[in-house]
């Protein structure tokens, strides 16, 4: 009896241009409705990464966004509260090669409407200024202290030695805006570099690839090289993402982590969006099984009675028995990756902060 085997040739590997075009088509046409604010958020983030990393796109790749760009003035007039998304999308589309020169008039309109004056935080003011300065217009020209306040926030290292994701993301975004996404020296105080290493250490202990990728990007935009372990872990996580074409899975997925992890790879000089990209509606899932180190470490610390020592060898001996094997491995790696780990520990354990009387 003879068995006949049929060999099907493997489909050709997608080119970089094909993968980028499929990403744009997915987020423009297949994931969300164009009137959903999260559509604008996702598209703005993707375009921002492509523009900031110097990707080359042809008109065909940008085609799915032509109709949105064509009507962007009407959207800006009706949805001025989303002006930062809309400015970012228009500016990046033009920078990436879509024919048109609308962004300057959009910036002038936003200035006339005083939209940047409605922002409640320095970070939002910093983003608004960064966007509008791309057209040569400074909406915060009268606020001479904005950069100083932003740098002062980043230089308070104690903030970033404690788990506080909101503050950590505001730290990275502050560096993005001050550095014009790596295009100029952000003139950061030395303390800000310490803040970034503290935030990155916490992100690594939390196995939070999203935040750690942003910290690595911010460090490189500040002219620093992140710890090799951090970038190696992000590279491994990038390799493990699952890109699944589906019409039924919810979109509460890991797309943002996938975005910024690839962005970190590009900033480190590696290829971006290397995974084969399905056509149509795609969901993005990160690898599972990350050790819950930060939670276990925080619970063990809180359980210690009496004054906590900041001497890491002593403290480590007390905490290690409370940690799982996986968490101990990650902790060992974090300790090896950061030469100033003991300095981080001093802030993290809050040894010098007395508790409130009960």
Describe this structure in words.
With 358 residues, the chain is mainly α. The chain has 3 domains: 13-143, no CATH class; 146-288, no CATH class; 291-345, no CATH class. The protein is built from 19 helices and 2 strands. The protein has helices spanning 16-30, 37-52, 59-62, 66-70, 72-78, 83-96, 103-113, 122-133, 146-155, 157-160, 165-178, 190-205, 209-221, 228-240, 255-267, 293-303, 312-319, 325-337, 341-348; strands at 242-245, 282-285. It has a two-stranded antiparallel ribbon. α6 (83-96) runs parallel beside α8 (122-133), α11 (165-178) runs parallel beside α13 (209-221) and α13 runs parallel beside α15 (255-267). The longest helix is centred in the first third of the chain and has 16 residues, at 37-52. It is globular, with a radius of gyration of 23 Å. The protein starts with 15 loop residues before the first helix and ends in a 10-residue tail after the last helix. The model has no long low-confidence stretch (mean pLDDT 92).
